[in-house]
């Protein structure tokens, strides 16, 4: 289905995001030949082939071009040809004698090639001859996870950690009849590079457990909507499914009945959806059931599920977000940061080939600044996926303008064994020491909001996630420009420069006015929005700063602390162990230091806290000034929404500045060197 087929009466205002009609003008005004050889295509490829044709037809119908035969002087040829490219999603682009030619081995490759031409715009047709350029994704595992609930959860709502309205899939208790927003979403995702979607929350409730049972026909409907855009559907399952659904007395992975039950469930799912992706599972994590109850390990659990789905070519995404969430704050030895490594690294090499261990990028929980997860580098004989959050649970709930491209890029390029060594992205795509690929997964930020993402500028994060999964080495600011160009085609130069002023360094700005120097979780418990310096300090979820009158930070050293630094390979283990070499931005993540400790920047810790909080608010004010000057250049409804969000961001940032500064002044008794107002 193309956007042309979406019923405007049902969804009058869904914003076109990075696929407005105008972005297709350079392509749609051309003479285009589509050649897709008749072959025994799989259903997926056959449907994607139809999509390519429909996209081209819709574009030329709107912009005055024509669909022609290859002999009829085309400007653009889109061809699936016999190719020896082994990557089914790859495509090539070349230009000879005034004809731009995109070729691929499959319709999926061609679809990505088509969107590549849309991104290039006029540039795709302007040049003289251009040599063949090959484009291929870094990995075939480019995924988005939806934390959507079918039924509205009393505390978490329809979408857990969702800041964009309701779910595009579910409407209080049922799977939506009208999935046209899902179709639009699939198209947006394909145009950014995503090829897998898990459709429900990892915290699986009783109703959601039934998605692999009597609600399977609804999953079939959703998979049917994703398939034409080359997107594979996955479902989150509950470890307790055999108990919940069939009343078995156990879900012990070693029980023959349990194994048989899962094999039967997998047979049913794949019979209904032959190209289904697999199961995502959160087990023994934050109260979710898992194999621990039966004295079994995560490897035992994952391998049992893997055996059930293996005959169908299915995958198990087994999440490594396992830690003790019932900690006693008096216990200074337990360190949540150590948990994923402790639980998973010992089992490296024992997971089945179709298990992907999905590990959050940091050892805690998607904080604005935390170290990279050492567990990601500790499993060379396992397929490891790096997990991120596109939704901004800890980064302002899509009320603050925060572009995450830079953060992701920095994390993805982190060299685990020192300069020039394999990076986080290398490990995920199978170029790490063991060569096993697990790919990328992230929590989606999309809802049924007209702008998809609450803050219209948060669309840039969704776009950037897709583009970075395709090429993790891409420049995040070039991606931002690309997003701006597509989303606001033909916009005046002010639009681009305004977006830069607002978003370019917005991750750093957010870090400045929130928790300093790698201190984590200074947010309100549960909601994770707004400043609450001691909100988590004495809760069972872990202790994050230990601030007292003398100093602040978590001592995670081997010498005197929790010993967490030993989980890193060299050189990082030593770099982080010593306060002399630890990078400033992580100093309080790894060390407990006096407020008068002097950073590499030359400032004391306390003065750094004050300065960044005053400066952070100023940066937000500058963004608002830039916005106000250019708001008139943007569509009115979008401008109104952004203006609204900025009002809240200013209020919230002021809160952050004053509460954090006041907290540290009261703790330390050390005044601001510049004598600014602290309450
Ligand atoms: C965080 C988040 C939860 C989520 C969990 C997870 O703790 O706050 O809402 O369920 O991560 O990743 O499973």
Low-confidence stretches: 1-11
Main beta-sheet annotation: 8 strands, parallel, barrel
Cα Rg: 25 Å
The best one-word shape is globular
The fold-level CATH name of the largest domain is TIM Barrel
Question: Which small compounds were modeled alongside the protein?
Answer: alpha-D-glucopyranuronic acid
The share of residues in helices is 25-40%
- Classify the beta-strand content into a percent band: 5-15%
Task: Output mean pLDDT.
Answer: 96
Structural class: alpha/beta
- Provide a count of the helices: 21
- Spatial order of the strands in the main sheet? 7-12-13-14-15-16-17-18
Query: Which CATH class of the largest domain applies here?
Result: Alpha Beta
Number of domains in the coordinates? 3
Report how far the terminal alpha carbons are from each other: 57 Å
Q: How would you name the CATH homologous superfamily of the largest domain?
A: Glycosidases
CATH architecture of the largest domain: Alpha-Beta Barrel
Domain Glycosyl hydrolase family 67 catalytic: 134-452
EC number: 3.2.1.139
InterPro entries: A-glucoronidase_C_sf, GH, Glyco_hydro_67_C, Glyco_hydro_67_cat
Protein name: Alpha-glucuronidase
Structure, explained:
The protein is an alpha/beta fold. It has three domains: 3-135, Chitobiase, domain 2 (2-Layer Sandwich); 142-476, TIM Barrel (Alpha-Beta Barrel); 511-554 and 592-668, Alpha-d-glucuronidase, C-terminal Domain (Alpha-Beta Complex), CATH 3.90.1330. The chain has 21 helices and 20 strands. The strands form five sheets. The chain has an eight-stranded parallel barrel with strand order 7-12-13-14-15-16-17-18. α2 (43-63) packs parallel to α3, α9 (256-272) crosses α10 (298-309) and α16 (493-503) packs antiparallel against α20. The relative contact order is 0.08. The model is unreliable at 1-11 (pLDDT under 50). It comes from Xylanimonas cellulosilytica (strain DSM 15894 / JCM 12276 / CECT 5975 / KCTC 9989 / LMG 20990 / NBRC 107835 / XIL07). It is an enzyme of class 3 (hydrolase). Residues 134-452 form the Glycosyl hydrolase family 67 catalytic domain.
